[in-house]
Request: fold
Amino acid sequence: MKKAFLQLHLSIFLAGFTGVLGLLIELNEGLLVWYRLLITSLTMWVLFTVTKKLKRIPLNDILKLTGLGFVAALHWIAFYGSIKYANVSVALVCFSSVGFFTALLEPVLLKTRTKWIDVFLGLVVIAGVYLIFHFDPRYKIGIILGVICALLMAFVIIYIRQFVQRINPETLLTYQMSGGFLTLSVIMPIYLYYFPTEKLLPNLEDFGWLLMLAWLCSVWAFQLSASALKKLSAFTVNLSFNLEPVYGIILAFVFFGENKNLNQWFYIGFALIAAALVIHVLLILKEERNKKQETKDKKEEIAEWI
Reply:
């Protein structure tokens, strides 16, 4: 169990490290994501084919995962764009709102019951982002991209759930990454036309960071979390990944000293978002306890009848 927790938090740490790498890599956000997806998808095809973890899936599922891969690719472009137009801390604060956007959008998209407490917490998150934006206009574009990043990721999370019960994680992620790479390749000429850059090829240093981003923060981090999931519940894993923005912000403070460039309104806004996150986590824990108690009560009721 201890090994599983260590694997889980190492994978979360690596996920948080992607923000630091996004600032270190000098390519623009579109090319950064394109190279990341290229290296990651190729690595997954080779690795999971050799280990025989790739499974055949219907064409309809492949097309749907390709579409989700494209949305995920746009999410990453917005995320790294937020980093480059603002900084790592601002991007991660905006990204931390993804859970609340998921809670707000899911009832609308899947026609499920609306949880009004989640709506309220979502408004608290928006208020936190507004405080950072309103009182520190330097990060205007970065914050807008950060919010777009969170919204796009919420769509991916909502729709990916229909696949996780019947497709193994290695196959699912390989097709999603590959779909993101292929669709992004199609629109990349248009993207570069509207967002031109002189640097199309990574230098040796950038290539090293890209390999770290793809191999450590994508492939290895995924394998660590998948391994941890064998010993820990999906609930524990999902709950723990709320720490990803926290790890990322701490790393940004350590590597780039971003805390020196942030004013008091960033911390006030972040405190609001963190408070909403804590309340949300506590509500999830309470809901999980209630489910366990209901299951226990049903088993006792059945035992009495027997």
In short: The two ends are 35 Å apart (CA to CA). The mean pLDDT is 85.
